[in-house]
Amino acid sequence: MSDPTTGSTNDTMIEAVRLSKYYGHFAATQDVNFKIQRGEVAAFLGPNGAGKSTTMKLLTGYLAPSTGKSFIGGFDTQTERLQASKVLGYLPENGPLYPDMTPRGLLRFFGEARGMGSTEINRRMHEVIDLCNLHEVLGKPIGKLSKGYRQRVGMAQVLLHEPEVLILDEPTSGLDPNQIRDVRQVIRTLGETKTILLSTHILQEVEAMCNRVIFINEGRVVFDGHPSELGSTPAELDQKFHELTGMVGPQV
Ligand SMILES: Nc1ncnc2c1ncn2[C@@H]1O[C@H](COP(=O)(O)OP(=O)(O)OP(=O)(O)O)[C@@H](O)[C@H]1O
């Protein structure tokens, strides 16, 4: 069934409608519109400071927009916050993780906070610990873990309540190549069953994991399409990045 006023269908899982966020006169996000359908794995690509994190916070309802609306699983993230949060798993950049807790304690704490029963918590803890490969660190304080393990603990926490939609802010940032490979593998596996929007400023990330790319620059969407449309060789990708941002592309 579709909504005749917006053209959205039941398969629209993430939607931005004329989203803007102003800090004084500065627009961090400006008139952003898109729909991500069930089963898509989309990358939010753009240079540092382009507005990726701000837009993700607006999409999740974490930040109130200056104008516009966002929907997760069809729920308005400002007025139907609780319903939206049941469908959504949001991994913010760098956290939130409690450094003195152990991964085991943290997962139990978030399961209880989400109102999950103890049988369900135990079942899901086993599953996310396996998926994110946390066995070795379950009893160690999170603050003592490597960045790669901390990122995997964050991912496990996000997945605990089996959300259909994942919004992941720079899930591989600051990781070493082995850790990046592991996290990409987890995301590819998740992409088989979930709708995902992840942010990155690395073009290779997009090609490795995503079937759609939404390119943002200075708060605006400047490209929305299949990653192959950005080019196939490193030189073409550099050129496209340059065209879209007006920057030379060492980040690419
Ligand atoms: N609370 C705030 N007050 C004022 N300006 C802000 C605030 N939050 C973000 N900005 C500005 O908005 C712009 C977009 O920031 P944002 O963090 O969304 O970009 P980003 O694309 O996620 O960047 P990065 O890749 O560096 O994380 C930046 O210029 C940033 O300085």
UniProtKB/TrEMBL annotation:
Superkingdom in the source lineage: Bacteria
SUPFAM superfamilies in the cross-refs: P-loop containing nucleoside triphosphate hydrolases
Transmembrane segments: none
Record keywords: ATP-binding, Nucleotide-binding, Transport
Pfam families recorded: ABC_tran
One Gene Ontology MF term: ATP hydrolysis activity
Residues annotated as domain ABC transporter: 14-243
Similarity comment: Belongs to the ABC transporter superfamily.
Cited PANTHER family: ABC TRANSPORTER, ATP-BINDING PROTEIN
Name of the protein described by the UniProt record: ABC transporter ATP-binding protein
Organism the protein comes from: Aeoliella straminimaris
